[in-house]
Amino acid sequence: MGVDQPPTLLPDPRCDWSRLDRAARDAAYDNNAAVPDSAAQAAARNAASAAYRVAHPEGLDIPYGAAPRAALDLFPAKDPGAPCLVFIHGGYWQRNSRDLFACFAEGPAAAGWSVAMPGYTLAPEASLTGIVAEIGQALDWLAAKGSAHGIAGPLILAGWSAGAQLAALHLSHPAVAAGLAISGVYELGPLRDTGLNDALKLTDAEVAGLSPLRLPVTAKPLAIAYGTAERPALVHDARAFHALRSTHHAPGPLIPVAGAEHFSILDELRRPGGVLVRAATDLAKGLCA
């Protein structure tokens, strides 16, 4: 039987970062500009999510905290003991909302899972430190009160884009059994040189303490997925994060989704039997092995 080896890392596309002007640095993280039909994909996602919420209205808009966005949408399975995918949306911590991603409950629901989708306060109203704290509060709520809403199974914490960074940070939460990080940013330092920081206003302490690539490795299983057509900076972060975890013998696969870009990769979570649905299912199976 062969032994899995950490992937060979490609050169960091930000190696000449200091030589790039502001426009080039912004472009390194501009997923919308990199995907010509990103607006059409978002519009289709929003419409599908609105329809899904209409069809599943029972567990919507449940507060877990005092802030207006500190609420959960819950889609419990018939079996309260089924695994629950806790999905954190993206948008560089300053765009989007949980309701726009409801359609991605379809894939896990088809596998018999529950799904929980926490919202959070966006920057600049909240700092990244505050956003991280809200996700922890949502997980505390699920651990304490989820069973009263039909969610009593193991929590698999997933996130996309900015949500992947938030999921990686909370892998160590006692209520979380495993994680699925999709198309994330795991090193925050370069973001301070882009327009994204106009709202985030990242501090030195946040860059050091909230970049998963700079933190101690959590031993729980974490699958790390990225699309092979993503921005090179995100591909590099995913591969580097998996390599770091592999060095520390932390379990979890690296999942390159062939041909997927930053938005189409989520089709693999919405589609029953999609690559990301299978990845979550494998994580849950591993907990029982």
From TrEMBL:
Keywords: Hydrolase. It comes from the Bacteria. Pfam families: BD-FAE. GO terms for molecular function: hydrolase activity. InterPro entries: AB_hydrolase_fold (IPR029058), BD-FAE-like_dom (IPR049492), GDXG_lipolytic_enzyme (IPR050300). Residues 79-170 form the BD-FAE-like domain. PANTHER family: AB HYDROLASE SUPERFAMILY PROTEIN C4A8.06C (PTHR48081), KYNURENINE FORMAMIDASE (PTHR48081:SF33). This is Alpha/beta hydrolase. The lineage of its organism: Bacteria, Pseudomonadati, Pseudomonadota, Alphaproteobacteria, Hyphomicrobiales.
